[in-house]
Amino acid sequence: MENQKSSAKQLMLSYGVYLGLISILINVVNYAVGDIYRPHWGIQVVSIIITIALIVFALKKFKEGNEGLMSLSQALKIGLGMSLVSGIIYVIYLFAFTGAIETEFFANMQEVQYQNMVEKYPTFTEEQLEAGRKNIEAFSGMGVTSAIVLIFSLFFGFVISLIAGLIMKRTEEDR
C-alpha cells in the first residue's frame, strides 16, 4: 500500500511538472508568434489534447504498476494532483512573465478585451461601455488570473480524470 501511495505521488509530481512545462512552452510559442492577446482557438485545442493525453498516460502507468488495479478515487487523486502541480508551475511562470517579460500584459489585455466588447456590442451606450471597462479591470490582475488558472486547471483535471477513471477503473471486485 505504501508503494502505491509513493507511486501515485511520484506520478502526480512528474506528470504535473511535464504538463506545467508544456503549458509554459505553448505560452512562449504563442508569445513569440505575437498571438499572446488574441490566441488562435487551436492553441486551446492542443492544450486540452495534451492534458488529456498526459493524465490518461499517468493513470495507465499507475494501473500497470498496481497489478492492473485502479479505483476511481485513485484516478481522481492522480488527475487532480497533476492538475494542481501544473497549475502552480504555470502561475509561477505567469508571475515571471508579467513581472519581467511583458510588464504591461494586464493593461494590454484589458484594452484588447475592451475593444472586443466595443466591436461585439456596437449598440452599447457610453455608460454600458464604462461599466464593462470597470468589470474588465476588476477581473484582471495577477491575483484573479492566478485563481482562474488554478480553478480551471483543477476543473479540467477533475473532468478528465473522472472520465478516464470511469473507463479505466478496475478493482478486486471486478476480477
Structure description:
It is built from six helices and no strands. By secondary structure, the chain is mostly helical. It has one domain. Helix 1 runs parallel beside helix 3, helix 2 crosses helix 3 and helix 3 runs antiparallel to helix 6. The chain starts with a helix and ends in a 7-residue tail after the last helix. The mean pLDDT is 92.
Main features:
single chain; 175 residues; mainly alpha; 0% strand; elongated
Entry summary:
The chain has helices at residues 2-32, 41-64, 72-101, 105-120, 126-138, 142-168. The chain has 175 residues and is an all-alpha fold.
Helix and strand run: HHHHHH
Rounded radius of gyration (Å): 20 Å
Distance between the termini: 19 Å
Q: Find the structural class using helix and strand composition.
A: mainly alpha
Proportion in helices: over 70%
Give me the number of helical elements.
Answer: 6
β-strand amount: under 5%
Average of pLDDT: 92
* Shape category: elongated
Spans of at least 5 consecutive residues whose pLDDT stays below 50 are: none
The tally of strands reads: 0
Biggest sheet: strands, sense, closure?
Answer: none
Tally of separate domains? 1
Helices and strands, with pairings:
Blueprint (H helix, E strand, L loop, with lengths): L1 H31 L8 H24 L7 H30 L3 H16 L5 H13 L3 H27 L7
